[in-house]
């Protein structure tokens, strides 16, 4: 009987020791595991590829503009006309344009874009400017002393990029915060001209990419055929209407409308011209 009682007490004591030991081990390992997991998580966040991007952030606010200008060669004329129509119901937005047929940055002796842009920018001080120019620029750069730099040379590339920068500088002389959108010259029916414009577009894109608040707007896919070549019309653009004129260069009304819509979509990713005042707030308290 006594032996039996002794065995029972001994068993209970052993069970208690085992349970206490397990609890101690569990508590110790649990804390170590928790510390290890926390350290691993923090280490993981320190890895560049695993850091969440803009997890709680927001996209940069859009710039609110009150004046918009469109300028360039003959392709810009139809573009400006259709953009002005599309924005006609925005009374708070001032709109102006300047287009010159056959003009470009290569021949200031024919049309001096520096002087004319300075005149436009000084008069209207636009908050945003859309430039569409370059289709006439695959020719020698004419210099002020009458000499010229031949197209296809490194000197020509450097000179042309400097002329693009100069246009931006002139615009910002009169409005330092102006945003510039440079539209790509579209694909042309003449393969040689299209080849040259691809190079000229690349130079303008380079300048826009390197300059704050300047944006290059691609247009090639809007007008090119599935294989990348020229197309007079596309079934998925303006319900298949003819987009280009017979010369394979200029835009029809439908083409200008398509380009205007494309351009406005690009602008709206960076800008807003809507009245920022909530619609349900009166203009002013009339008082009593």
SSE map:
Layout: H1 2-46, E1 63-64, E2 67-72, H2 74-86, E3 94-99, H3 113-124, E4 128-132, E5 141-142, E6 148-149, H4 154-174, E7 179-183, H5 191-210, E8 214-217, H6 220-223, H7 253-267, E9 271-272
Parallel strand pairs: 1-9, 2-3, 2-4, 4-7, 7-8
Antiparallel strand pairs: 5-6
Helix pairs in contact: 2-7, 3-4, 4-5
Q: What is the domain tally? A: 1
Separation of termini?
104 Å
Unreliable stretches (pLDDT < 50, length at least 5) are 17-38, 40-57, 278-288
Largest sheet: spatial strand order: 3-2-4-7-8
Total number of strands:
9
Task: Give, in order, the helices and strands.
Answer: HEEHEHEEEHEHEHHE
* Secondary-structure content class: alpha/beta
Radius of gyration: 33 Å
Average pLDDT, rounded to a whole number, is 84
Shape: globular
Largest sheet: 5 strands, parallel
CATH homology superfamily name: SGNH hydrolase
Helix coverage percent of residues?
Answer: 40-55%
Number of helices: 7
CATH top level label: Alpha Beta
CATH topology value: Rossmann fold
Architecture (CATH level 2) name: 3-Layer(aba) Sandwich
Taken as a percent bin, the fraction of beta residues is: 5-15%
